[in-house]
Write a structure and sequence with these properties.
The complex is a heterodimer. Chain A is about 70% helix and about 5% strand. Chain A is mostly helical. In chain A, the strands form 2 sheets. Chain A has a two-stranded antiparallel ribbon with strand order 1-2. In chain A, α1 runs antiparallel to α4. Chain A is globular, with a radius of gyration of 22 Å. The two termini of chain A are about 30 Å apart. In chain A, about 60% of the residues are buried. By secondary structure, chain B is mainly α. A two-stranded antiparallel ribbon of chain B has the order 1-2. In chain B, a hairpin with a 4-residue loop joins β1 and β2. In chain B, α1 runs antiparallel to α2 and α6 packs across α10. The longest helix of chain B is centred in the middle third of the chain and has 32 residues. In chain B, about 60% of the residues are buried. The chains are: A mainly alpha, B mainly alpha. The interface between A and B is medium-sized, with 33 and 34 residues.
Chain lengths: ~550, ~500
């Protein structure tokens, strides 16, 4: 047990990449062996993370548990420091869970040019990057994991992505969608993270007031709360701006979102799922873990701008959805809207808002992840994602159609399902933002956000109507469609169960996050801890 | 002190000299079909030269000879190690390439080893004369090597361009040095530094002139903008292993010479060379990257990329000088960058040599589908090119990281601007490195094979690929290994 609490977290992070190394040694022709290894590694990783979940001390959710702190690059005082608190716990579980589900789903869904070995290796590297980002407590380590996800995702989109040839504005020749989307995703993210790194370094050099320079996140947070003047003023404002670029591209926030519809649409099903369910959260998690607590004063200055951009994202994302004809693209734009709610929650700088953003992240992961699975399975069967050609799906494939309807309702924020809490509470948070933030601005944001929820319902129902309802189009006459298979069910049923469970009993998430969030807000924005949270979630 | 000779300190150079003579003798005595033995002799000799380096590294004392003109401290050891290892890798890459050309094998290795000898001497140089001899001995054999493929017009052009501009730069460098000597009456760096510290001399316009002339001379050697015009044509025309050597060893030699002179001899004139380096760094990054974007030939792409990389390497020094902060940080950053760049760039060139045979072309579109029919080479290509782009967890990230770190430590407006330029350029660079990988992995295999897809790289080339690949991955995950070199190189800054 002692061993597990020390090494458990490290295992969860590095087991996938170890699995990838072993997998590389298996000949490509032995497909079953490769798939079994992939399943084994992702299942063990998931079980280990569940082990962490059960060993987690919820009474001390605001502290880092299963901590490990070893010297890594001593010359610059960067350490291998990992730990798990209430904020990172749900996200880590989400990540290991989705990788497992993706492996199960992939079992008999391989997109051209197949090659399960290469695909699974990339997926496992991706898993290490995602898990690592959620547990890293050192800025350099965080940066490495944050960037580690780029290469596998680039190859996933680029090799297995959408091969439709189309004319892309600004390009002389027609290009395959996947090629354009892959490099666009890569360049946007790298652009953001280059500035994020500059921000990290700036913080590092300022941190020497209290002894050695450090990249250690808890240490930096301590410096920020003990001696607020160190990271304050113009310095803090600029550094927050640099970090903002890095995180906001990843979230993505309007107007840095343009890579997202392309990447999500072009990626293979599992790629879209992992992008939407986990990778977008790396950005918003970065705000909560790093930017807010280390630079509280600058966060306060930036909050109105973030709120405005978030609301623009909500409205713009929703309107853009209404204009889509491609089902996957519509779901992709819906992510812009949903992540807008997450960022609105963060921008309030209150415990209610930040808690809302975390449950919003979890819910968006579960729901949009499932939506992308469904969209992938549908386009697998229909060989098109054009909603104009679909229709009557409910009649052709009743079970698939039913799950699709359920998920669409969850996505539009139906009370009783997971999507509700994030939207509702972030609006609630915006009603009463942190002291010193403009009430007018945030209440306007709240009203506009509420309009956004209506629009969300609008486009989700629009999609549902186009795809599911009505009579099947004439072109599908005589086609036989097989309804969901067992691999799909195995991947989706757990998600459905969780969406309902979190919807009915949000304490599954809040139980872990609340203390940690309250502690964060108390440290960074002392004047703003409200009693509202306890009244909402009952404890 | 006197003229006592410390043979251990000279041992690496002596081993290389012995190897040079051995290779020459073998080349005379061996029949044509046995000439490949010269290659083995050269590889063995270079490996042997590493042994005294290791002994001295373990020992750790600073050895100084000839009244301080020749000093072996940890800084010199790190660089000698760098030169020896990269020469070793270049030799491994050369073996099958040169054998395929079927002429002058002995001379080829002779010339490479002479150039290596020059850079080894140069790393220990602590006065202008030794430095100049070392630097020129590094460069002069390369004039000949660039024109190695005699029947090829491009190779001839490469040689002529490199020769003419190389001689010009040598002349300018020498002019600068002579002015410096005239002003100070000293050739030893220590003496010059003391003399320049005198305010009366520091205000002398001729001093600025001397520093700038030397900077131009070094600028040619490292192919920094605006002194880079020879590089793309020379790189493209020269045999690929020679290009690899040019872009790593000779560039590193130029860098080291520049750093030693600027830091050891004329730190007092940093208000002259600081802004000049700032401009050179920014211009090299921007021009190198923007030009690389338009290249379709993979070697030319690497040529422009190495110009841009030279810009990144200049950043720490430029920033520290402009901001007037401690230069030891910049030393450490530049040396770490050099070491990592050497490994990954040599790896990239090894991939180019292996890939050119398989694809039958140096044009990037012709590399389409390489990853499909040779996944191993494809993975290595991705490792080296993305490492050059600085993507974690490949070694290149740490090079970029220490570069940014040393800029941010300076922390003035001018340096932050430079950091922003570097950050934007890191993104631009990704685009063209990714274009190579796009061809290798994302594009479909062409129906007609231009090269021999079944070709297996020679054993020595595979060894070079393996060494560079392992180092790129290991240093990426455990950068502490590379930072040891950076720490060791601070000794120069301290003294």
């Amino acid at each position: 047990m002692e061993l597990f609490s020390q090494w458990g977290l490290t295992l969860v992070v590095f087991l996938p990449i170890l699995g990838a190394v072993v997998m590389a040694a298996i000949p490509r022709a032995r497909e079953t062996a490769v798939k079994r290894l992939g399943l084994l590694v992702s299942a063990v990783t998931f079980l280990l993370s569940v082990g962490l979940l059960f060993n987690f001390d919820y009474g001390r959710a605001s502290e880092y548990q299963f901590e490990m702190n070893r010297s890594w690059i001593s010359a610059i005082n960067a350490n291998y420091h990992v730990g798990l608190d209430g904020i990172s716990l749900p996200l880590l579980i989400l990540s290991t869970f989705f990788v497992l589900l993706s492996v199960i789903y992939s079992w008999n869904h391989w997109e051209e040019p197949r090659n399960p070995k290469a695909f699974l290796i990339l997926m496992l590297i991706l898993a290490t990057g995602m898990n690592g980002t959620f547990v890293a407590l050192d800025l350099v380590l965080f940066f490495i994991f944050f960037e580690l996800v780029l290469l596998p995702m680039y190859f996933m989109i680029g090799i297995w992505g959408d091969k439709t040839v189309r004319k892309i504005p600004g390009f002389a020749r027609e290009t395959e969608t996947r090629l354009y989307a892959a490099i666009k995703f890569f360049l946007f993210t790298l652009f953001g993270s280059a500035f994020m790194l500059l921000g990290f370094l700036a913080v590092y050099f300022r941190s020497d007031v209290a002894g050695d320079r450090t990249f250690d996140i808890p240490e930096l947070i301590r410096i920020a709360s003990d001696t607020p003047e160190v990271f304050a003023g113009r310095f803090g404002w600029l550094v927050f701006g640099a970090m903002f670029l890095g995180f906001a591209v990843k979230v993505p926030m309007w107007p840095l979102h343009t890579w997202l519809p392309d990447a999500h649409t072009a990626a293979p099903t599992v790629g879209s799922v992992l992008l939407a369910a986990i990778m977008l959260k790396l950005g918003s998690y970065g705000f909560i873990r790093i930017a807010l607590p280390i630079l509280p004063e600058a966060a306060h200055d930036w909050a109105p701008a973030i709120a405005v951009l978030a609301v623009i994202g909500i409205i713009y994302g929703s309107l853009a959805c209404l204009a889509q004809t491609d089902m996957k693209r519509l779901i992709a734009f819906s992510s812009v809207g949903h992540m807008g709610f997450v960022m609105l929650g963060i921008s309030t700088l209150t415990d209610v808002g930040i808690n809302a953003s975390i449950i919003g992240m979890v819910a968006h992961g579960l729901i949009t992840g499932l939506l992308f699975f469904l969209a992938g399975s549908m386009s697998h069967r229909y060989h098109t994602r054009e909603m104009a050609r679909l229709g009557g799906n409910q009649k052709l494939m009743p079970i698939l159609g039913g799950i699709f309807a359920f998920t669409a309702f969850a996505s539009l924020g139906l009370p009783g399902l997971a999507g509700f809490w994030g939207e509702f509470m972030s609006l609630l948070g915006a009603y009463n933002p942190a002291a010193g933030l403009s009430l007018t601005l945030f209440r306007t944001a709240m009203v506009l956000g509420a309009v956004g929820t209506v629009l969300t319902a609008g486009y989700m129902l629009y999609m549902l109507q186009k795809v599911n309802l009505g009579e099947p189009k004439a072109e599908w006459e005589g086609h036989h469609f097989h309804d969901v298979d067992r691999y799909e069910l195995a991947a989706w049923v757990p998600l459905i169960v969780l969406i309902v469970a979190v919807g009915i009993y949000p304490r599954i998430v809040f139980g872990a996050t609340t203390d940690a969030v309250v502690d964060l807000v108390r440290g960074a924005f002392p004047s703003t801890v409200t009693a509202a949270l306890t009244t909402v979630v009952g404890g | 002190m006197g003229f006592e000779i410390d043979y251990l300190a000279l041992a690496p150079e002596l081993v290389v000299v012995a190897t040079i003579l051995g290779v020459l003798a073998l080349d005379l005595l061996l029949p044509r079909r046995a000439k490949f033995l010269t290659a083995i002799a050269a590889v063995l000799g270079v490996s042997l030269a590493a042994i005294p380096l290791l002994i001295m590294a373990v020992d750790g004392t600073t050895r100084s000879m000839f009244e301080g003109s020749f000093t072996v401290d940890t800084f010199a050891l790190v660089l000698k190690g760098l030169f020896v290892v990269s020469a070793y890798l270049v030799l491994l890459m050369s073996v099958s390439y040169i054998e395929g050309e079927r002429y002058y094998q002995g001379e080829y290795y002779f010339l490479i080893l002479c150039s290596l000898l020059g850079s080894l001497v140069m790393a220990s140089a602590r006065d202008l004369i030794v430095l100049f001899i070392g630097l020129e001995l590094t460069t002069a054999p390369l004039f000949v090597l660039a024109g190695w493929r005699k029947g090829d017009m491009k190779s001839n052009e490469a040689s002529v361009k490199y020769y003419i501009l190389g001689v010009l730069s040598t002349a300018l460098l020498l002019y600068g040095m002579s002015l410096l000597y005239g002003l100070t009456g000293e050739v030893a760096f220590v003496g010059i530094r003391t003399a320049v510290a005198d305010p009366a001399l520091a205000a002398e316009p001729a001093l600025g002139m001397a520093v700038l002339l030397m900077l131009v001379g070094f600028g040619f050697k490292v192919a920094a903008v605006p002194f880079h015009f020879w590089a793309p044509d020379t790189y493209e025309g020269a045999p690929t292993p020679v290009t690899a050597y040019l872009s790593v060893n000779s560039k590193a030699a130029g860098f080291v010479a520049m750093l030693i002179v600027m830091y050891q001899a004329v730190p007092g004139a940093s208000e002259v060379w600081g802004p000049a380096l700032w401009v050179m760094a920014a211009a090299s990054m921007i021009v190198g990257n923007l030009s690389a974007l338009r290249q379709t030939n993979i070697v030319r792409l690497l040529a422009y990329s190495s110009i841009a990389q030279a810009g990144f390497m200049l950043v720490p020094f430029a920033a520290a000088a402009v901001a007037g902060t401690d230069l030891s940080e910049a030393f450490s950053a530049t040396v770490i960058y050099l070491v990592i760049f050497a490994v990954m760039n040599l790896g990239a060139f090894a991939v180019v040599i292996a890939g050119a045979r398989k694809t039958g072309t140096g044009d990037i579109p012709g590399w389409a589908g390489l990853g499909t029919y040779d996944p191993r080479l494809g993975v290595l290509a991705a490792v080296f090119f993305f490492s050059l782009a600085g993507i974690p967890p490949l070694a290149g990230w740490f090079a970029k990281f220490v570069m940014f770190r040393s800029v941010m430590i300076a922390g003035s407006t001018a340096t932050v601007v430079l950091a922003v330029i570097a950050a934007v350029n890191a993104v631009i660079a990704l685009y063209y490195y990714a274009r190579v990988i796009k061809a290798v992995w994302l594009d479909p295999v062409p129906a007609i094979a231009a090269g021999d897809r079944e070709a297996v790289p020679s054993g020595s080339l595979r060894l070079a690929l393996a060494i560079a690949g392992v180092l790129t991955l290991v240093v990426g995950v455990f950068p502490a290994i590379a930072s040891v070199f950076g720490e060791a190189s601070r000794v120069l800054a301290a003294g």
